[in-house]
């Protein structure tokens, strides 16, 4: 296929603006799938993706489209819209020449739309503006058009107005892709230069690497080299990305496809790495883009300790398909053996938990999420602390730095006060405020990540009645007064419930956790103290009163001294029991700690 007849593009938008639905219509229009047999969201092949209505893994597919008597190849890469998976978007953009910027006519431009648009502009992509869902009763097409004109400076005539659900104007959009998006550049005769933009694990064939060829031609049986590791492989199979993999003899400059080369682990084929041939290959790799960086850390433990071996095997299998997941062995006094895991965000954590249950039938408990703190010691050394249990002795610490995020919140003007109050409660620093139009405003804050990871998103939706949208990205680490709060049950420290927070929030968060535990830990025959402490200092306390046994029930009269004697005997017994008795902590207590109010 001639280079000028190839178009590589992706669809970028906010979550739930119709990316996957539009991809379905494209596949139908180009006869890749049968309209009568199709299921919704063809490219979302995980059950979780269908249920939640979101794209978690990016997908790539090849289509053929006829226009003015010529056949064109479209390589479409579907991308996720949720902020946790923005790293998937960056992979897709690096292998495209253009992007369809999809905006929901009823909701307008939202935070994630802007974030992905900036990523696309950084990659010098041609932007094709598209307004979707014009068939909805609540659609405000003119307002959505005006927003696009204001943001990217396009002419009104160049904005496509479609309904991905009904297929209205989708064929015109496909024709518009040919006109608006440039063909790829590249020299088939130059040394091979290819970019890995994704990979997945096949149980029988090993790692399947998805590549975009910039220069040269890759053929079956060629010996290739991954430039970041220098490891050499021989191509066993090469081909195109149809709905199913379609083998071919070669991939040429400008094309997108897959390679199978007996690579055993997804970690060996790093996203952003450059592939070249062993013979006559290039010496300088393509400019890389950053690998996924875990932002939230949590312990994962099996509900039943006998499931540990199964959990270890399952985590290994999950890691093969999810290169963003990192994990290490962890041992907790309260929960036994498990893993300390790093996630992109809270949604990523939830997805991993769900997949462990659905795909491997393992119920797990997650410990209180934390973020990565930089701890500077008095001797000048720096320690990265992802787990509160690993925090060095406070006497040795000079200061602690926490990650700060650049946060953009887009919200209707009537909720600005609520949003500003919420951000101030979360130690936010306002940077600026920009009015998008008369109805909506974009507010930019610097917020500590530890304040975002718990329930910030839920609170944001609550105070804005669901209208606010959020996007955030890492800015820097900043010095803060961070303390470790331990939870003590009957005087015994429960390591799995420890957490780190700002000193000003310690009492509030600690009291919230002890009050939550009071509701879920059952009464015992003795009084139970639930305490939150910083070192030896108790900062919050709740008490579970003892179950009272009526020892006077058998007294039908008689002298008062007899009753006092029985009560004294009971008092002594409870005192002794409190000293030697064990508190049975139900599994629900660990889950309840995650849901404790942290405002």
Topology:
Elements: E1 6-12, H1 19-29, H2 47-52, E2 59-67, E3 70-78, H3 86-94, E4 98-104, H4 111-122, E5 126-132, H5 141-152, E6 160-161, H6 170-180, E7 193-202, E8 206-215, E9 217-219, E10 223-226, E11 232-234, E12 237-241, E13 245-248, E14 250-252, E15 256-260, E16 274-277, E17 296-302, H7 308-321, E18 326-332, E19 336-343, H8 346-360, E20 364-366, E21 370-371, E22 373-377, E23 382-385, E24 397-412, H9 416-425, E25 429-435, E26 440-448, H10 449-452, H11 456-463, E27 469-480, E28 482-489, E29 492-493, E30 499-502, H12 506-520, E31 528-534, E32 537-544, H13 560-580, H14 587-594
Parallel strand pairs: 1-3, 1-4, 4-5, 5-6
Antiparallel strand pairs: 2-3, 7-8, 7-16, 8-15, 9-14, 10-11, 10-16, 12-13, 12-15, 17-19, 17-20, 17-21, 18-19, 22-23, 22-24, 24-26, 24-27, 25-26, 28-29, 28-30, 28-31, 31-32
CATH class of the largest domain: Alpha Beta
Based on DSSP secondary structure assignment, what is the total number of beta strands?
32
Please describe the biggest sheet, giving its number of strands, its sense, and whether it closes into a barrel.
8 strands, antiparallel
As laid out across the biggest beta sheet, the strand order is 11-10-16-7-8-15-12-13
Radius of gyration: 29 Å
Provide the helix percentage. 25-40%
Mean pLDDT: 83
Strand content: 25-35%
Tally of distinct domains: 5
Q: Which structural class is indicated by helix and strand composition? A: alpha+beta
User: End-to-end distance, in Å?
Assistant: 58 Å
């Amino acid at each position: 296929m001639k280079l000028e007849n190839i178009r590589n593009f992706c669809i970028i938008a906010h979550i739930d603006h119709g990316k996957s639905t539009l991809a379905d219509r494209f596949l139908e229009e180009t006869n890749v799938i049968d309209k009568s047999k199709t299921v919704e969201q063809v490219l979302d092949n995980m059950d979780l993706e269908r249920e939640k209505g979101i794209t978690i893994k990016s997908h790539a597919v090849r289509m053929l489209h006829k226009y003015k008597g010529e056949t064109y190849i479209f390589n479409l890469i579907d991308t996720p819209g949720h902020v946790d998976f923005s790293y998937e978007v960056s992979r897709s953009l690096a292998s495209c020449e253009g992007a369809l910027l999809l905006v929901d006519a009823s909701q307008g431009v939202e935070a994630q739309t802007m974030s992905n648009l900036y990523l696309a502009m950084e990659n010098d992509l041609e932007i094709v503006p598209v307004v979707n869902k014009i068939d909805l009763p609540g659609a405000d097409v003119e307002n959505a058009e005006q927003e696009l004109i204001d943001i990217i400076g396009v002419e009104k005539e160049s904005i496509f107005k479609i309904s991905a659900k009904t297929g209205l104007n989708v064929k015109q959009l496909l024709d518009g892709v040919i006109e608006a998006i440039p063909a790829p550049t590249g020299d088939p005769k130059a040394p091979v230069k290819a970019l890995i933009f994704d990979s997945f694990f096949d149980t029988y064939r090993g790692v399947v690497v998805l590549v975009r060829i910039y220069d040269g031609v890759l053929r079956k049986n060629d010996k290739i080299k991954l430039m970041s590791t220098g490891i050499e492989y021989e191509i066993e199979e090469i081909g195109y990305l149809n709905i199913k993999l379609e083998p071919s003899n070669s991939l040429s400059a400008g094309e997108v496809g897959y390679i199978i080369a007996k690579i055993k682990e997804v970690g060996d084929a790093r996203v952003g790495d450059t592939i070249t041939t062993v013979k006559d290959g290039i010496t300088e790799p393509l400019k890389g883009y950053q690998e996924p960086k875990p932002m939230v850390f949590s312990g994962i433990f099996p509900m039943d300790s006998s499931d540990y071996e199964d959990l270890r095997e399952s985590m290994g299998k999950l890691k093969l398909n999810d290169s963003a997941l990192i994990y290490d062995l962890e041992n907790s006094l309260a929960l036994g053996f498990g893993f300390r895991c790093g996630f992109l965000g809270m949604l990523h954590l939830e997805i991993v938990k769900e997949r462990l249950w659905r795909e491997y039938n393992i119920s797990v408990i997650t410990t209180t999420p934390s973020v990565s703190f930089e701890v500077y010691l008095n001797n000048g050394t720096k320690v990265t602390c992802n787990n509160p249990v690993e925090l060095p002795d406070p006497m040795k610490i000079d200061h602690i730095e926490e990650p700060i995020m650049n946060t953009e919140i887009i919200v209707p003007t009537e909720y600005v006060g609520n949003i500003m109050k919420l951000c101030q409660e979360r130690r936010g620093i306002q940077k600026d405020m920009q009015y998008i139009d008369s109805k909506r405003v974009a507010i930019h804050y610097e917020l500590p990540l530890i304040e975002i990871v718990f329930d910030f998103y839920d609170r944001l939706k609550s105070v804005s009645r669901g209208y606010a949208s959020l996007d955030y990205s890492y800015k820097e680490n900043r010095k803060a007064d961070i303390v470790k709060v331990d939870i003590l049950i009957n005087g015994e420290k429960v390591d799995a419930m420890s957490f780190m927070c700002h000193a000003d929030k310690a009492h509030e968060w600690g009291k919230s956790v002890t009050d939550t535990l009071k509701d879920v830990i059952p009464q015992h025959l003795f009084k139970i103290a639930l305490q939150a402490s910083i070192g030896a200092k108790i900062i919050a306390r709740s008490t579970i009163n003892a179950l009272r046994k009526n020892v006077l029930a058998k007294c039908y009269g008689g002298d008062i001294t007899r009753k006092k004697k029985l009560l004294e005997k009971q008092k002594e017994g409870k005192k002794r029991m409190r000293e030697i008795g064990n508190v049975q902590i139900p599994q629900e207590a660990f889950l309840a700690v995650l849901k404790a109010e942290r405002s």
